[in-house]
Amino acid sequence: MQYHRQRVISGKGVGRAEFAEALRGLAVDAQDRLYAVGDSKLVVFSLQGELLESWATERPGYSVAVTTSGTVYVGQPGQVQLFDPDGKPLDTWRDADRMGLVTAIGFGGDFVLLADAKDRCIRRYDQHGKYLGEIGRDNRMKGFLIPNRHLDFAVDAAGVIHAGNPGKHRVERYALDGQLLGHWGRFDGRDPAGFSGCCNPTNVALTRGGHLVVTTKAEPLVKVYTTDGRLLALVGQGDFDPNCKNMDVAVDSQGRIYVIDTARLQICVFAPADSDSTTQPAQPGAGETVRP
Amino acid sequence: MNQRPTRREVLGHAARGATVVGLGGLGLYLARKASGESVWQINCDKCVNSRLGAVGVEACDLCATDCVLALSAVRAVNDHAKCGRCYICPAYFDIKSAVDEEGLPSQKLCPRDAIERKPIGWIDPDDPANNFYEYTIDEKLCNGCGECVMACKEPAGLTSIRLVVRYDLCLDCNRCSIAIVCPDEAYDRKPLDEHEAAG
Questions:
Q1: Contacts with A193 (C-beta within 8 Å, 6 or more apart), sequence order
Q2: Do the chains contact at A167 and B52, CB–CB below 8 Å?
Q3: ipTM of this complex prediction, to 2 decimal places
Q4: Tens digits of per-residue pLDDT, A234-278?
């Protein structure tokens, strides 16, 4: 399985489609529109990198997710803001104790799931923001091990949560009721199938085909695995600033992978080599920068 | 009868006053320096081993090799308040070494084995990944080579380890041999209060 770098979207700057200080969260909606949050704003791009929308958030965004009906959730320090598809604020769930730093948002069954990096766990809410319970905290470490201060997860079609536990060099699977179903992953600084450094993988996404896409730091990389941990592809070697960490990742319906370069404040797009024949692959090391 | 001072006289008084104040400040500065209040210090924002952004480069060991003392007056310290207490610490282990039967890197990073690793709190005997670990640097062994500082730097680690001058050993040389060779001008002489504020 191979991917090529297709293009680069956004970048460091003060324009509407750029980010001045931080770019932290990504999501792709059902129409394959790309949502990016950072600074104190949200930007919506077409998959070609054209600016579609941009609106302000109350606080700096750390994560973003979009429901099938188009409601946009933005995770922030101490709260989650909800917007309609046009950017009109719908609601704000405030809970400084349980939403210390919301670094991931997902949907499973009728639940909204929020990762709180401050408290090192995932929390389950109903669709009106009522707190229902915790996931990943019923262990002797009282939560995930995230020295990198970032907790990320993805939810598959069956409602299974796949969460990175970087301090243990694992991806763990949880049921929506919080039961630990299993885990895979191991430390290895030489074998690319393992996870190196103090704490990897940092970020997690799922393809529609059910593969797991994770990112790692030091060295910044994208890796594609089966859900039981068989390495399928290494993506983006040499494409990211080496200072990147906690690079959020999202996948569209065509299997294209979107990854944040957290140092250059760019979104790198990688397409499977065996698809997307309508787009020309970039020359090695030379991605097309799109700044609408 | 009082006469108003001329403009020339006012300016003259002001200039004399400024000169007195300036000479006083200089004298005070020299007095403080002479009394040893100015000390050698390492600026972590300049030192390549701890400076954020400088990744993918070799650790600089000039503090270890160029001090006039047999054991350098520079050593590494771990700020436990910032440390992640990781199961696999890239400053303790050589994370590129082969994995042993326990799933850990088989080699340590420190060439002098100066870092001690021990689990803290309630210890899980069955799963070592289920523990927090404390990493302490033995100052009797550390020679300030900077390997652990570089390995702990973000994004690989949390930048909790840094190099410091041990003032119980430092001879306070007028022309410090480390400062002379430091390519980043990170080894600098600062008044004690500035050093403490930076520290």
A1: A229, A230, A231
A2: no
A3: 0.89
A4: 999 999 999 999 999 999 999 999 999 999 999 999 999 976 433
